[in-house]
Each structure stands twice: as structure tokens, then as C-alpha cells.
Amino acid sequence: MTRLSRxxxxxxxxxxxxxxxxxxxxxxxxxxxxxxxVYLQVSxxxxxxxxxxxxxxxxxxxxxxxxxxxxxxxxxLARTIDTTSVFVAPDEFRKDKKDTEAEITxxxxxxxxxxxxxxxxxxxxxxxxxxxxxxSGRRFLWIARRIAPDKAKLLEAxxxxxxxxxxxxxxxxxxxSLAANVLGFVGLDGKGLAGIEQVYNExxxxxxxxxxxxxxxxxxxxxxxxxxxxxxxxxVLTIDQSIQYQAEAALTTAIEQSGAKAxxxxxxxxxxxxxxxxxxxxxxxxxxxxxxxxxxxxxxxxQNIYEPxxxxxxxxxxxxxxxxxxxxxxxxxxxxxAITVAKRVIHDHHPFGSLTIAEALAKSSNVAAIKLGxxxxxxxxxDYITRFGFGSRTGIELPGxxxxxxxxxxxxxxxxxxxxxxxxxxxVTPLQMVAAFGALANDGVRIxxxxxxxxxxxSGVQVNRPNLEQxxxxxxxxxxxxxxxxxxxxxxxxxKKAQLDGYTAAGKTGTAQKIDPKTKTYSRTKFVASFVxxxxxxxxxxxxxxxxxxxxxxxxxxxxxxxxxRQIAEGILxxxxxxPDTDFRETELIARAVETPAQIARKxxxxxxxxxxxxxxxxxxxxxxxxxxxxxxxxxEIVYAVAASxxxxxxxxxxxxxxxxxxxxxxxxxQVEARxxxxxxxxxxxxxxxxxxxxxxxxxxFGKIN
Length: 706
Prior knowledge:
With 706 residues, the protein is of the alpha+beta class. The protein has 22 helices and 26 strands. A hairpin with a 5-residue loop joins strand 16 and strand 17. Helix 3 crosses helix 4, helix 9 packs antiparallel against helix 20 and helix 12 packs across helix 14. The longest helix is centred in the N-terminal third of the chain and has 42 residues.
């Protein structure tokens, strides 16, 4: 009785302990679960959500639509078009968990065969890529990017297992190779790799969008959602599509005709620094970059340097005039074409004697340029070189620009001034040279050349406009004096082929020998021919440089590059609305050289008898002759007496300027020889009204009219 009662009393204690144990276990279990849940929900939440999305959802980044590139007239130079790209989801080849490996492999082989036949791919390579992607757990595999529209339609109609398409933007250049070196191109990923596309890639690109693809437990896609990106900004260039086309056409023709290695042409507005055209030859089509050679993709206008030769003489001449060391009308002894500088003899292309400073520039005298350089001195010469922008980058909005090669004065040799003054021992780019001449055309103020006019956002609102860098290089008076002297180069110097119909023109030719890499000396067969000019002379609308590398046959700048300048200028000036300032082409020139008294006397004796006979005939007919009139560039009338036969009679040139007299005589087809100094005609032979023979020599005396 007592033992039973004791057992009964102990059972409740055991039950209670067991209950408490179970309760404690459950409590601890729940606490652990709760802690785990808190850990997963708080600490691991983001990672788990991402993992779930990775298993259930694929995210494909969509390349954003790149902003357009426009010319100054809002015409498209580069735009983005929609194309179709093909990709494969490797995990979709297993349609059911019961599918065997052989069935999956067969499905992949079937898909690979169809893709290869339609897209012109290798079947084995496509099969291997898909199979390897499936085995490695990849869920996305590109097969072909930006396929042709007709193939995209056929592919979508085939509804192949695991194959999907998506719209993808593609860069398109509607004008083909036009301005290719300016625009650049993009890679397969849509990233700019050259030109404006590279420099402004971040602004043009915009923000990418995404496509989210929802999948079931077997990895099969059943729904997709697209989040659009933000389009890129629009870049408006200073380039004019029409001017660019004409520059490229003229340059390409010149390269083909001369058999040259390469060339460049740049058209600049000197008053704004805007580049209206920048052409290179050879060039390439940015729609098919793979077919282009590295040389064709090179932007020679700003990446390659060359010795400029005589075009560089503007530095010595302008420095001497600016410092008051010379005037255009001063005489300089050209020493019959030879000068010695530090025991080095430098020759002219022709033995000149005494010339005015203006004549020396027109005839491109090396001796005169060197003498002026010696007057200026090494330090000041270097200062003016840098003032014109040589030796530093222009800051053009294109990649790869070189600063050229201008040595510090401390590194000049005693004979260096003899080389630098005539454009040797220096290296420049065509862009630097056209900007330097732009300073002359803009009354001595150099404005940095640039290509960007403005940048707009996707809504068309302007968000950026360039700040123009400008500085005075020389005074207005010096710049205008140089402009007049450079007009003499086209009137009676080395650039006769640069004369324009309807417009006055000025400029400078250059013919530079290239360094032979084998001998390390100047080559006798390889040259760089160039011409830099502007028009009209008094108020230049454009500055144009043409540089031809290694022309075959004729190689002088006046023969090879000047005609290209003429072709470009005559094509674009009327289109730009520039008012003509002359009525006809100047084919013959007035020679402004001062003749010796003996030369004048000899020519006068030779013509004396003929003139006397002509005068007797003139006097009997002059009073009854009808007359016709033309006007000079200032609107003043020049009267021509018409002969009874097909000949034309000599006009009265007295009081006319050098330019007007030259035009009047060259229009008649006469050979002109000038005598004396001064800006107005004070005498002429034959006299007014004399009947002229074709090709007859006309003597014009110049002097000052009080």
C-alpha cells in the first residue's frame, strides 16, 4: 500500500518533466526557426531575392538608342536604326524532366542546322556553342547580331526551339563615307571607337534599358517585360554636308589624277573658327569598317605632321612687318638666289635680284624669307610661331590630334633660322596651318577651330555650346597687309591656278621635300604639295587648305594643290551666298617687278615704230567707233572701243588700280608688263583706242597720283 502510493506520487513528476522538456524543445526550435527566418529575411534578403530572380528571371540589357549627329543644316550624318538580333536560351531544349540526353542533343542539332542554313553559319560551331552553354548552365547565348530584315522574318516564322529574337539598335551612316574621319564609327557593342562617336560617346549613348524574361520551373520562358532606356543626346556639327561633299569630291579626283599617296582638305570659317568641311583621302565607309585599312581610318588632317615649306613663310613676313622691320613696299636684295647661313648655302628656285617685300612673298623667295627671319631673330621668331598656334594642339573635338614639332629656341642650331623661316625643321598639321591662315583672314585674330556647334538632349533642348578660344596674333594693319601680299601670289606669283571666277583670292603655295627614311636626308622624288588660301580677299568667307602627299608627276603646290582650292572655292562660295567681287577670271597677271632704265628703253625702242603706225590709224577711226562698257569691282566704268574687225581696241587704263588694270588687260588676252611703282596707272602703251593683236604685250606705267 505504501509502495503503490509512492509510485503514484512520482508519475506526475515525470510527466511534468517530459512536458517541460518537450515545451522547451519546441520553444528552442521555434526560436531557432525564428532566428533563421529573421536572418534570411533581413540579412540574406537581397541575396535570396537576387538568387530567385536568377532562377526564375533573365535580365537582358538593351543597348540605348544613340543620339543623332547632324550637320549645321540639321541634316543627318549618323543615326540609329532598329535591327533584329538572335539569341538562344540553352536550358529550353529540355522540355520535360523525362527528356533523355539523346533527345536534348537531337533538338540542339536540329536548331543548329536551321540556324546555320539561314544565317550562313557553320553548323558544327553553332551546335558546339549551344551545347557548351547548356552544360555550363548558361541561360543566354548570342547567335547573330543585327541580321538582315528578310532573314529575321523567316527566322520568326520557323519558331525554332530555344531560339529568340530581340530588337537591337544599330548605328547607320546614311551618306556612306561622307565625313567618315569626322564622324568615326562604333563597335559591335555600340561604343564609339573613333571620331565624334568616340569623343562624345557618353553623351551620345544615353542609358540602357532592360528586358526581363520570366521562366517556369523547367526554365521555359513564359512572359517578358521591357523597361526602355533613355536616348542619347544629339550632336550638331559645324560641318556642312554639301561643302563636305564638294571638298571630298575635289580631293579624291586630285588624288586619283596625280597618283598621290594621300591628301587632306579643310574648309574653315575664319570669323567663327567653325570647320565647314574636313576631308581625307583615302577614306572609308563607317557602315563597313571591317573592309577599311588602318591607313584609310587615319585622320591625316590632325594626326600626321609634315614640313610645310613655303606656306610657313607667313610667319617670317608677318613678324618682320609687325615689328616694324619691313614694309610691303620695301626692297630686299635676294642675292641672285643664294644665301649663306652659318656656312650653309640655301638657294632660291630662281635667281632673283632686288624685289619688294610683297614681290618676294609672291615669288616665294627663300632668300628674302631667311633675311627677314634673321632681322626678327631666333627668340622673336619662335614667339610668333607659337602665336600662330604651331607647336600645340588646336583643341579640336577629335581624338588623336598631334601638337606638331616645334623645337625650343635653346635647341636651335646656328643655321636653324635658315630652315625654320622657309618651313623646314618644323612639323605641322594641316589643321594648324589652316587655323594660322584663319588669323590673317580674320584681321589678326586667331579663333580655335572647332567641330561642335551645339549639343541637345532627347527633348531637343540645347544643353551645351562650345566656348570659343580666341587671341590676337598680329595687328589688324599687319594682317591686311599680308592679305594684299598674298593676293599677289595668285595675281603674279606661284598660285595662278588658284584664281577664281567671280571672286578675288589670296594664298600661299608650298612644296616640301619629304625625309627619306633610308638615307635620313631630303628625298628627291617624294614631296608634299600644298596650298592655303582664302576668298574673297577683302572680307574672307572661307579659308581652304589642300595638302597632297607624294603626288606623282607634277609636285609643286601651285600645280597640284592650287587647282583643288579653286574647284572647292568656286563650288561653295555661291552656295554660301557670298557676293562676287570680280566679274571674270584673271588668267594673266600684272608683273610688279621694277625694271631697270635700260630694260625700259630697249622695250620702248622695239615698240616705237609699231606704235606710231597704229596711232595714225587710230586717229582716223576713233571718232566714229561705237563703244561698250564694263565695270570694275568698285562699280566704276571701263570703256572698250570696239574695232570694225574682230579685234578689240585698247581701253583707257589711266587712274585705275593695279588689280583693275590687270583684269582689264587679261580679259583682252594681252600679255602685261608693268613698270614703275605706285598704286595707279599713269601711262600705258599702246594708247587708248589702239587695235590690239592677240597675245600682244601691253606696257602699263604705275605711279602715285597727287
